[in-house]
Amino acid sequence: MPRAERPAVGDGFDGGGRVLYAACALSQFLVAAGASVVTTMGPALREANGLRASWLPWAVLVYVLALGLLVLPLRLLIRRTRPLPVLILGLWLFVQSSVALTLVSGAPAFLAFRAVQGAGAAALTATALALVLALDLDLDGQRPDRLLLVWSAVVVAGFGTGLAAGAVVGADWRWALWANVPLTATAGIPLVRLLRSTRRRDKAVGAGAGSFGGGGDGVGVGQGEEAQDAAA
To answer: What residues contact residue 173 under an 8 Å CB cut-off, 6+ apart?
Structure first.
């Protein structure tokens, strides 16, 4: 589709395109940080949960496996339904598992909740990808490749921040996991509000009246992408 005919990224969200992009990027910062934070937490984490030093890589592996195995099915689910339920599921799983990791004792329970946290990360990643890829990624004329570069830098920064935070907290390692609660809310609340506002607006003007072609919540992610692909 010619550039002039494509909708601007903020049009479907009443000018909230920048907020949408920033919130999605922050969610991926948290996903990357969540993957790496336990690797450098050290003896205090292992003593609290009965993790042997040789088991610590599994705390990373189960998270990454859950993320990698679930992100594509969830992405396909969003294309067929709506992003809002998957987003809410991801927020709930990520926050609840982060809190649970600070409370449980025993290696099996800790590893199980790490897998649940990875599932929440998969839902957040699938939603962020769906929302961003369904839009034009052109904020005020900025080049899409520049925005994608910023996105990649945010993910790398999240991974590095997780390593640094795990090394710094030491015996207070639980605070690194508790921090996921306000940070996830900071990323999730704007996304939920934007999706709900567009859903209410589309209901008011009738089915299929959303800027990106109805998906039930104002962002017809699957339909919007297929329509752009067909018109390209």
So the answer is: 41, 42, 44, 45, 48, 166
